[in-house]
Amino acid sequence: MWWISYYRLYRILLLQLSGILLRKWTNSALGNINVRLVEGNALNRGRVEILHNGVWGTICHDYWEMPDADVFCRQLGFEGALIALRSAAYGKGTGEIWLDDVDCKGDEPSIFQCGHKGWGIRNCDHSQDASVICIPIVRLSEGVFSHKGLVQVYHSKTWGWICNQGWDKQDADVVCRELGFTKASMVYGSLKDKGGVIWMKNIQCIGNETSLVLCDHEDWKKHSCTNGQLAGVECSVPEGKHLISPVRLVGGTASYEGRVEVSYDGSWGTICHDYWELPEASVFCRQLGFEGALLALRSAAFGEGSGIIWMDDVHCAGNETAITQCKHRG
């Protein structure tokens, strides 16, 4: 219809003429313009920085824990934090270190309302800059370690699917960049045989959006797909970049036993024991260089881990070369 064409033309011109307008819209749509994440390879992770007196600065990692990271992530528009990182996990900042000894209860609407030493008062350097990985608002169904899968979006505290009506490479490119890749190598549709809600339909990205949720689409509601297909994507992986994450055994008395742990984005975490059986254990052991597994143990047999639990409901066929190639919840 002619009015749709004029609207699209107006929006394209508006975004091309004002890059700063897009940046402000992105920040306000996803959170507060006085906080940001820097140096991460995706929208939901990076070194935490705050704006004070017109100058960007970092936060010292002293007492930087999940309640503080949760407040920061929610201020950015995410649901909360996956993990609070220390020791300049995303590189050292420069200039001011604005806050130290940040102490949030966890329910504050802003990091600025949490307790701290005072603006610019600190006893640390940039090697102690705080970082965070926030709960993403877009993910792929094959799991957090995968570069392909059906696209899911987080809305109203629920993960939902995307209808592939109007789904094209321009939309898929936005998803891949949001997840830390450069672009999409393939887009596809999959027959809807999944449960759950479909949140987005008829998406129309211009291509320079920083998140899929900033693209034009029909209203947020429970949609149905007239073609019965969900949107999928395969993101391009640069040559030399490996998606197989390091794994290790911890807490055992010998090198061939222990609690299973996997590293993602520089942080070690555990695997939940749901559906953990010999096929999964064998894949894990072969990734470590062993022939396979003798037993698959549950219930923290080698002690409880700490930090994040990276994977749950792991299902391996048994012939995978890495545990992250197995299906899991993400």
What does this structure look like?
Pfam families: SRCR. It comes from Pocillopora meandrina. This is SRCR domain-containing protein. Keywords: Disulfide bond, Glycoprotein, Repeat, Signal. With 330 residues, this protein is of the alpha+beta class. It contains five helices and 16 strands. It has helices spanning 2-17, 19-30, 66-76, 169-178, 278-287, and strands spanning 35-38, 45-52, 55-59, 81-85, 96-99, 131-134, 138-140, 148-155, 158-162, 184-191, 198-200, 229-235, 247-251, 258-264, 267-271, 309-311. The strands form three sheets. Strands 1, 2, 3, 4, 5 and 6 form a six-stranded mixed beta sheet that branches. Strands 7, 8, 9, 10, 11 and 12 form a six-stranded mixed beta sheet that branches. Strand 14 and strand 15 (267-271) form a beta hairpin. The longest helix has 16 residues, at 2-17. The protein starts with a helix and ends in a 19-residue tail after the last strand. Mean pLDDT is 85; it is low at 1-29.
